[in-house]
Structures are given as structure tokens and as C-alpha cells.
Amino acid sequence: MSKLSRRTFLKAFAASGAAAATLGGASGLVRNVALAQTVGKDQVTKIRSACRACGKMECGVWVSMRNGRAIKIEGDHTSFASEGNCCSKSQASLQACYHPDRVLYPMKRTKPKGENPGWVRITWKEAFDTAGRELKKIRDKYGPHAVKQLHGTSRCYTYSTMMTLKAWGSANHGDTAGQVCKGPRVAVTGMVAFAGAHWMATVDGVKCYVQWGGANETSNYDDSAAVCIDRRWKASSYIVVGPSQQNLGATADMWLALKPGTDGAMAMGWLNVIIKEKLFDEDFVKQWTNAPFLYSYDINPSGFKWEYRQLVGMYPLDIKTRLVKESDLVKGGSTRKFAYYDAKTKAVGYFNAETGEWDKPYNQINVSLSGKYNLTTADGKKITAQPVWDYFWASVKDYTPAKVGAICRVDPKLIENAARTYGRLCKGGGGGINMALAIEHYANATHNIRDIFSIAIITGNIDTPGGMRGGEARQIRDYILPPFVVTGVPDAPPSFYDNVAGAHRFPLLPWIITNGGAAMNHDMTSVTDMILTGKPYPVRGQVAMTGSHFHSANALKNWEAQKALDFSWGSELWFSPTAEMFDIIVPATHWLETKAIRMSQGAHGGTGYQPGPVKPRGEARNDTEIGIQLAQTLNVPYISKEEAAVFSNGNQWPTLDQILNRSVMPMGYKSIEEFNKKFQSEGWQDLKKISPKTFGAYRGYETGALRNDGKKGFPTPTCKAEIMSTIIESYRPNGEQFAFYAEPPQGDMTPAGKELRKLYPLTMINPQRVPVYFHNEHRNLPFTRELYPVPRVKLNPKTANKYGLKEGDWIYIENQKGRITQCVEIFAGTAEDVIAADHQWWYPELPAPDHGCHLSNLNCLVDEYAQDPVTGSTGLRGIPVKIYKAPGAPAGIITSANDPRLQKWLPVKEV
To answer: Are 435 and 449 a contacting pair, CB within 8 Å?
Structure first.
């Protein structure tokens, strides 16, 4: 199937004369297009789909249907991103879809927030009319930014309301989940290479599999469990970095059990060994990074306004750098031409970052990576300059394995061996680094990520097979127009982003939100304060889809903010604790009921479809339909007049089928029905084949595939992969621009951390991905809850003995923010002064409105102001705590698979 340019597909399709017949008069999709034949009563038919039970992978599945009811889910081996994987969460989808307690109708509260809402059923019309009236009332009084989005996972469905809010005028349309889930990685990789470059192409296979800060083999986080396990065994070496031993970690060739929060120091130790032993890719470093650019502390920072358009907008940055530029050495010279020293001609040359070209053909120069050079500036001043590489080496030179071993509490020989193994196997390609959430859950997230990513940069593992290839943002740009893209209003001007909550504390946040992808976010701590204090401006309204109040910052404080909102409107599957604080709740479809185009979130390039084989229960509606209707309610055109003329008979609020038709047009399909027929018959579509010159070709920096203007290089201020970040230098001019490590603010080597540990001697982390749960989901499903009925906190046997605890005891975990309780599990795979607790727990069996969400949720202990100074990422791990024995489990919760209340959650038989 040929790929059409997004700029030309509308014109080409309209000119074909098929537009009106195919789209304008569309009566709707054939629901189960896999059924070309008539089926008899009780006959079982299999329909290809994409699982969304966990919200992180797009695992291909077959859904078996009988008499309109889903009866079985199993893996689809045509999905090269998941290779037939089908986990316990996917199996439990049958219980979720047919759960007796789902939200099935629009409801409104009749009692004050903080009490049982007293939900009463209303019509969809009343739900939307109320939303329009109340949200407009808030906008009229306080301005559009006073309405915020609360957004969680199930992205690609729920972006529709997010983008509608943006079009309506709110800069607080981003999802606060992104602040602690990919947001920091998207931002940091956007600073130094390209946004979202952190996604590693695990599916390609790697020579050395490095799993840093996670356990993908059980979580399906970005990569399916099946693929992770397979590639682990096929790799020549398998290295795990993290404070708690994880599942496959027991089989690792090397486990670097570092002290929580010291990931950046560990990365600098690796960089030290790799550079010292010349295991870096010198050709890549010279040609495609800013390592050879001359840098001088003898000049004042100067620069230019960088106005590169990101995925969802453009926000200019004022670049001020001590990189030597032509303007520093020549009167009237360019600020975008960066000086280097040519060892062949013994003279200074220039790289033009505006064109992406050297001043001479690269094969005719020999850029130097080291040396001191005496230069004369345009005003006659004598200065000394050195290549960035010299300064980069100086920043890691002292981080020897011995020093890092002392910081991280890891054997220096093990650090040295791990770095050497990775460098030898992956020099020049063949292995990215599988960075998981833990590294961005500390308040030193920016440098954790940047230091680890620098390892991949200097070894030449950017956009290579098995390397850091990037994810959904590239797919969206290359070949698909997602349903949530709102084109009916002009894009926001740069000044619009200045209003995002948190910009007054984190100056780069307005730029970060334009990087987009799965991580457009405002700052949860700031927006909570703005709700409660009205400063720097009030936030009074909320539109929610899948979000929760306890995924970021402090859950107790966020709860108070949810109670304080004037109006909150959201769609949900369940009467969750956060949903119990809404004023209006509307029912969303389960993934088995949802029609949606699906993109694999990681670097796989897979595309499939959810045909929604199950008829929506009650009055549940597709999230995209809800977003389109909300846009109409708020008088925001969802698509442009030009698109509407082609897709929807001039209607700027198209039907779901019409907007899905629009989605697949750039791939060359005339309709979603045509795409689905091919999907049902042939399986998952491969972006590498659909778009062979972009995602299908590796090393896109050589061809212009990594930039939206087609120029060679990277979308950074220097047009190079930046081991010296010009953005960090410009906005944090205190020496952090090279490799840099600082303990998180609550680390035990900081003054604040030392004081806290006088009262709270243990460090709490939450490293474990419970295979049957996904964050706060599935606690109300009989299958998953009977397998894992209560939250567990892992204690080292010596720690348990010290506190007089045994397996199955309940303990209190306490700090200055509050107290929670969890059940003890004895586990030797964590350090004696570290406890590993479960996160996101609530108890659906307990009464509304809170359902016990503050009894065991570790976010109640989070210091909301312990944040990364660049991205604002909340410190969710490395929290100082104390523990002591509790009298038992909280009253009224399910603690056993034999609890008869689980029977009440069994699927309904008639729908």
C-alpha cells in the first residue's frame, strides 16, 4: 500500500472522485469485517484486534466471539511487536468488559464532594449541556486556562478531549501522568537528539540487552513480555541496573544493584570506562554529535532564538552558549555556524546548523576531538578554546568505577565489566538501553536520563537496529493522522504555552509541552496549588479521561484539590476514587467495544485496528466520539473546513467512522473499512514497509528523516546529537550542560536527606510491576484480585528480623507526609535499608467516595515539592520512611482469593 504525503492526500483523494461515495455518505463500518461468511447460532468466530488491557503495548490478539459475546482472547502472531504475547491482564479483559459495576450511563452527583456522590442517571444531552454551561462559566470568569485536563493512560483514545481543550484555549490540556511517565524522557531526548528517542528497538534484537530501571518482561511496558524474554536470551549479554532484583534479573549476567536515585552516577561511570578504553564510536561522535565544536569559557554566552517546530507546536528558546560561533570570531558572522578545528588544514572551520552542512565535504576534513586552540575574537580578544569532547571527558573523568562504586554501593569491578561489555558488543550499533520509568521517578530525572542516553549517543546507537529509534511521534509524523488531531482551529501561538501550570517554576515547561507524544503535561504540584490558592491564577474546572488524582505529586493534597474544584466532568469505565469526585460522569467503552486505529507505542512500527466486536454496553460511547461531541458543545470545530469537505459533507464535527477514515488516508487507504479488511486478512501493518524511506531506513540523521524540514542531522539547536546540551546551558547556566550528577533532594547524601533519615531511616522505592495490574487498574477484577489480593512491601530478611516481622504481617509505612499500610513479603533481592512497596492501591470493595485509596497508596507519602528542577518530575521513589508493625489488614478489605465478595464481580451473563 503506497504512502501518500499528509500534505497531498486530501487533494489527491478529492480529485479521485471517490470522496463523496466512500466517505461523505458512509453509513458506518461493518462491525465484524472478519466475518465474510454467515455464521450460525453458537458458532465461534475469531476477530483480529489490539489489546488495550494495560495501556502500554499494542499486543495483537484474536477475540473469539459467540452470539455477539467475547468468550476468549489469545495472542496474534502476526503482531511483530508482541509476537503472540497475551498476558493475564488481557485474559482478564473479559471480566472487565462484562463487569457488573461498570459505568453504563451518564450520571450526576446529588451530594457534596467528599461524600458518597449519590449518583443519579441523566441523559447524554444533559451531560454535555451541563459541561458546556459550567465550563463556559468558568472561562468567562477566570479565562480558558482555568480549566484543566486530567489524563491518564489509554492514550490515543483520550487525546481527543485533550486536544479539544487546547483548541478551546486552555494551555493546561496536557496529562499530568506524562510528568512521571515518559514526559521527562521525551523532553530530555528532545533536547539532545529527537523527542521520544528513548524508545529502544528491542524487537530488532540486541547484542547486549541492558534493562535499566524496570522489568519489561512482566509489565509489557513499551515492549511485550514475550519479546523481552526472547531477546534477552538471544543477546550475547544481559545486564540489569536497578536497586531491586526483578524477575529476569535473577538470570542476568550482571546485576548492578545501585542505591536508589544514583542512576546518573552509574551512567557517568560507564561513560568513564567507555571513553577511557576507546569503546565509543569515533566516526559517529565526530560527524554527528557536537563533540568537535569548540567551546570557550573566555567568551560570554551568546546565541540565537531557536524556533524549531515540535510535534504539537512551536515554542522558541533563547539559546545562549559558549560554543564558539562564527559571530564570535568574524564581524557580521553567523550565530548558527559553530567552529571546529580541522586537523588536516590546521585551521578553524564551521558547521552550519541552519543547513545541516559542514563548510567542506566531510570526507575532506578531519575534525579534532581534543586540544587547546588559541583564537582571536572579532573584537581582538585572545581566547582559548577546546572541543566539547575534552570538556565532556573532564566531566566524567573523576567518575571512576571506584568513585561510582562508593556512590552507588556497587562493586567497582562489576561497574567496569558491565560498561566494558556493553561498549565492546555495541560499539557502532546493535544495542540501545532499555530505560524504564524508575529513572524519571527521582527528582534528578533530567540528568539520570541524559547521562544514560549519552552512553547510547557516544557508542553510535541512535536510530540503529536495536538502538534508540523513537516511537509513536515518528509514526504520527510519517504516515498516520490520528483521530485526536484537532485541525478545526489555527494552532496556538508560542505565547499560548507560557500559561501552562508550572511555567512560573519550570521555565522549560512551555517548550516541553510542545514536544508532545504521550507526554504533553502541565505540573501536577503547581496545578494543585493553583486550585487551592488561586495563585498565580485560579484553576476551577476539569475535564477528565482515565486520569487519577494519585498518579503524581501528593495524593492526599490532590484529593483536597479535587474536592475544591467548581466543576469536574469526565468519562470512565469505573466509579474509581477520582471519578467519585466528578460532578458529571459519562460512560466510556471498553477496548473490546471500541473502534480505534492502533499504533505500537514503542519503536516497533506496527499498526493495527480495534474493530470493536462487542456491542457497547448500556450507553457507553467511544472516547473519540465523546471528544468530538465535547468540541461541538464548546463550539470548537474538530476538523478544518477543507477536511470536512472531503470527509464529512462539510460537517466539522464528523462521525466516528468519518474521522477514522481520515486516519488511514495518509497510508493510501480509502476508508477504515478497507484498512480493517486488510488487517483482518493479513494482520498487522509494518511501518518499515509502508514508509521505507523514513522509519524503514535506519540512521535517519544521514537522510533528513529525523527532522521535519528534511535536513540532515538532528532536531536540536546545533543540528547534532548534543553531548553538551545547549538548552540546559541556556536555562540552567551552572555547569550542568555536560554529563552531570546530583543526588535527588531526599537522597541520603544531601543535607535535607540526612536530616530526614534521623527520623526515617529506610528508603522506599516502588520498583515492582505486578503482572496482573496496571497502575491502579484491575483491582476490581476477580481473576486478578484473587491472584494478588493485597499490596505487598518487600523487606530484606535481615530488615524483617530487625523489626520483628514475618511474612504476611501488616506494617505501617510512615514519614512526614502521612502513613500507609501494606503486607510484608520477605525478599532477599533488595538492600537492608530499602523497602520495595506496591503503588497505586485502592479498594473497590470499600465505600465511596474514596474506596480506601489513601490506606495503602504510597503517593500519600510523596513530597510534592521534591521535583526535578528541569522537567518538574515528581520524586516518587527514594522516599525516606520508617516502618512498624500494624495490628492487621485494614478493616473491610478483601485479603483472600476465597473472599465471597469476589463472586459479586463476576461477569454479567446478559448484556
So the answer is: yes
**Residue 812 burial (CB count, 10 A):** 15
| Helices marked H in 608-746 | 623-633, 641-647, 656-664, 672-682, 687-690, 726-731
Cβ-based burial of 498 (10 A; exposed 0-12, middle 13-18, buried ≥19): middle
Q: Which residues contact 57 (CB under 8 A, 6 or more apart)?
A: 51, 81, 82, 85, 220, 221, 222, 223, 224, 600, 601, 602
Catalytic residue among 41, 46, 56, 89: 89
* Among the ranges given (93-97, 146-150, 511-515, 652-656), the one the predictor scored with the smallest mean pLDDT: 511-515
Residues 821/130, Cβ–Cβ less than 8 Å: no
Among candidates 526, 528, 535, 527, which has minimal Cα distance to 561? 528
Global pTM?
A: 0.94
C-alpha grid cell for residue 418? 558491565
Instruction: Evaluate whether 325 touches 331 at the Cβ level (below 8 Å).
Output: no
What 1-9 contacts at long range (C-beta under 8 Å, 24+ apart), as own/partner pairs, is 1/667, 1/668, 1/669, 1/678, 1/685, 1/690, 2/668, 3/478, 3/479, 3/666, 3/667, 3/668, 3/690, 3/691, 4/665, 4/666, 4/667, 4/668, 5/666, 6/481, 6/666, 9/665, 9/666
What is the Cα–Cα distance from 551 to 814, expressed in whole angstroms?
A: 19
Is pLDDT of 50 > 50? yes
Nearest to 792 by CA among 696, 889, 880, 859: 889
**Nearby residues of 410 by Cβ (< 8 Å), 6 or more positions away:** 256, 257, 258, 266, 404
Helix (H, G, I), strand (E, B) or coil at 249: helix
Percent of the chain past pLDDT 70, that is, above it, reads 94
Write the pLDDT tens digit of every residue in 179-204. Answer: 888 889 889 999 999 998 998 999 99
Rounded CA separation 656/546 (Å): 20
Q: Does the active-site annotation cover 72?
A: no
Crossing angle of helices 124-142 and 623-633, rounded to 10°: 50
Question: Strand, coil or helix: what is 882?
Answer: strand
Give the C-alpha separation, 569 to 117, whole Å. Answer: 13
